[in-house]
Amino acid sequence: MKITGYKRPDGSVGFRNHIAILASVGCANDVALRIGRMYPSVLVLTHRQGCAQLGDDKDQTARTLVGLGKNPNIAGLLIIGMGCESITAHYLADEISKTGKIVEVLVVLDEGGLTAALPRGTKLIDLMVREASQMERVPCDPEHLTLGIKCGLSDTTSGVASNPATGIAADMLVESGGTVIFGETPEVIGAEHILAKRATSRGVGEKLYRLVNQCEERVRASGMDIRGANPAPGNIAGGITTIEEKSLGAIKKGGGTRLQGVLGYGDIPKKRGLFFMDGPGRTPEALTGLTATGAQVIIFSTGGGSPAGTPISPVIKVTGNPQTAQRLSGHIDVDVSSILRGEESLQEAGESIFQELLTVASGKATKAEAFGYGTISIWNIGSHM
Amino acid sequence: MNRAIMVNSEDTVATLLNHAEAGDSVHILTAQGKETGTVKIGEPISMGHKVALLPMKEGDKVIKYGAVIGQATRPIRVGDHVHVHNMKSLRLAIPLNVPTNTK
Asked: Deepest of A56, A149, A211, A228, by most Cβ within 10 A of its Cβ?
């Protein structure tokens, strides 16, 4: 089956053609926003990191910013730095330009401040926007597609409808040669041994266990016991009996293919297939992490419904809850509640989600995308100075 | 029509797709939408809750999604509601030796 996308210099394919302004540090946000206001079609990627961070936290932020810039959905970007930050605009530009895409740098203190930076910044953006406008979609194969998968506001319908149906779509993409990345470490606790058994090597399984341990340690350090609090009273009232059942329902969204690898937050996989990405369940951080790994489209399986999107990649909202599909119809893209009524099998619902995935990749706007809903937020794992 | 879904073919429980009352017949569907049989339930079971497809002794593993989700703490009959009152988590300690399917 053919989909259409934008061929990039390094052989990757973008399924959107964005020009973006990326702040290398929180202090550059204001300059990025001012320039962005003059060009409404441009993505303005602001965040609160980039300086005074330590060790793993600093490395993770740097890796995530590089990943965001490398995402093939971005045709070109202007990186704005202050000139005094730890993760410099020049460092990010050096890494991101390895993809061959258009990368420009603006260092605010070198230019002479906010007002002084605006003329050059706007000129650079103007050139990029007009260059991108001449790029065209060409037919390509699904092997170039990386699908990110998230679940949120899960309820009973998630475990029996939207997650398994999404998992079927995930399997179809992997079978077509594509890549699937799902994450949220707290959600696999209780089912990590199941995932590890599907790993292609012992090392992959062991890395998964390490990440789960690390996640539990962090929660314990804050004075809570994650296993003791799971399942929550709401889950139990809804029919979920054990943490194993809850997590197995959650991992179902990734499908059943072999686990090729376990990625750190924002890590780009080096081969195709199914991957697990370490990260939090909290939506803005989870979606940001997925786009940093290179996911050009994201499927968000939801019970209760969520308007969330993320700037770089379109988010397809799937629900199996008929009340949600009706009440939040302005935010739901695929309604699979027909599974509950016996009007559609899980297999058929999975196939319709897969079709929606291909159509969205080829240009159809999702509801969250049409709103431009969502912002970048980088997962912070340490304190700053 | 009362329906319950058996997510994987090895499952020993199915999950109700609608509320059903005691004495109701529930049709068991596979992921492909095929009906594999019916089960008469002996008590009311809510949507999202589990019904036993096989009889289980205390200690027997409960299988859902093709994997162990816990074990029976009391004898369970076909058609029984399966939940916190008759099954519990195995709370596995994370094994350091990971069995994998490397060929």
From this structure: A149
